[in-house]
Write a structure and sequence with these properties.
Layout (H helix, E strand, L loop, with lengths): L8 H12 L1 H12 L2 H17 L10 H20 L21 H12 L3 H12 L4 H8 L3 H25 L5
Helix pairs in contact: 1-3, 2-3, 2-4, 3-4, 4-7, 5-8, 6-8, 7-8
Length: 175
């Protein structure tokens, strides 16, 4: 069923969502590729796919989750196609891991450790700490059971912690 603008209901919902939440989708893409132009391309390609496949969106109330998944898949696909190292960003949104002050060196070590993660692990960290998503929302976006997300996130955080401890020991501790 088409509206006055020639778009069906899902296309209208998605078009509005993409316009309103562009910054959110851009941050997701950027967290993977660390390049403004590439992140914009990924969001643009994701928007195209979301509108093109709008008829596959079964529940419009989950449109944001559906588009987030498309953006994540596009970003991962982009990284696979380009098989390149992700450049370290000069400025980046910090992980909301702790409220206490941490040194610049510790921030760089944390960013480096996150960059070493597998795409699936990085997705969990990005959604949980960069985008402040609840575990239930992450499970929905990743189309996995909540218990699976919890255990994967726990393992990923443990992996990060170990990597940071090794980095700290090899550098002789933080000053």
């Amino acid at each position: 069923m088409e509206g006055a603008n020639g778009l069906n209901r899902n296309e209208t919902i998605l078009s509005g969502l993409l316009t309103e939440q562009y910054a959110y989708f851009y941050r997701i893409a950027y967290s993977y590729v660390r390049n403004e132009a590439d992140a914009q391309d990924i969001v643009q390609e994701s928007a195209y796919k979301a509108i093109y496949y709008a008829n596959k969106l079964k529940q419009p109330e989950y449109a944001q989750t559906w588009v987030t998944r498309i953006v994540m898949n596009e970003a991962i696909s982009f990284l696979r196609k380009h098989k390149r190292e992700v450049p370290a960003p000069e400025e980046e949104t910090e992980l909301a891991v702790t409220t206490e002050e941490i040194s610049k060196e510790e921030k760089l070590d944390l960013k480096s450790a996150v960059e070493k993660l597998l795409p699936e692990e990085k997705t969990l960290i990005v959604l949980r700490f960069y985008e402040d998503k609840k575990l239930e929302e992450i499970a929905e976006i990743c189309e996995e059971a909540l218990s699976t997300i919890k255990s994967r996130l726990y393992r990923t955080l443990k992996k990060l912690r170990l990597d940071l401890e090794v980095t700290e020991e090899s550098e002789g501790g933080f000053s």
